[in-house]
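Technical note accompanying the year-one report. For the benefit of new consortium partners, we illustrate the data format agreed upon in the data management plan: each record pairs a sequence with a structure-token string. No post-processing was applied to the example shown here.
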Amino acid sequence: MTSSANEGLYPLHRSKTIHLVRHAQGVHNVAGEKDHSAYMSEDLFDAHLTPLGWKQVDNLRKHVHASGLSKNIELVVVSPLLRTMQTAVGAFGGETSASGIDVPLLMAENTGSSNRPAISSLNCPPFVAMELCREHLGVHPCDRRRSISEYKPMFPAIDFSLIENEDDVLWTKDIREKDEDLAARGVKFMQWLLTREEKEIAVVTHSGFLYHMLGAYGDDCHPTLKKEMSKHFSNCELRSMVIVDRSMIGSDTSKTNFPGKIPSGADVPSDAV
């Protein structure tokens, strides 16, 4: 007898838990909700969080600690834009101060006109910036990033080494990235996650990226699950999911399997005699 097609069974070490987060409310969200054409304004270049957005971050941080996620997350991957990095360090970073302890800051004081104290990297997972999980590229100045040298003093403990170009060569003024290209970039990002050794990863990114990336998955699921996966994220919403490496993209070995026969002895199954 074989299983029905309604469930899947996979080795644990071929899977990862990912916690997907959309950034908190940014100034561009407020302006764009009032007038969609505002997204074309240079005044919204690399938009920062609003005061309400920071309140959303504080509430997400409380949830991360109350739920135990803060003890399990091994890596935080973040889109290299101001609003996503502010959200990431606020929700998953160390305490706002680490008096007397010499550790790098995740965020310098008042970064992005935040009026927020510095955030320490003490007792938190590593943070890495990744261009693959950026928002729709092109046209909207709010989705254009600064140079990496500008970001480093703002977020000293974030690892920018995976970003190849100092300046933003991906964003273009006249061409907006196609939805299907964004979805393909999202799949590539998920494949990259499977190559990481960490088993539980938080990803702080954007609404459009999440919507189109998740829309590329779930066609083999019940329609209700597909709908649940691919609906739009609210500001600062977190959803936890499992990704399975069915194509052997990664090379993880199990940390929980046990080989047996220690010490060695006869192990003929009882139904074989």
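Partners are asked to follow this layout when depositing records. The longest strand covers residues 15-22.
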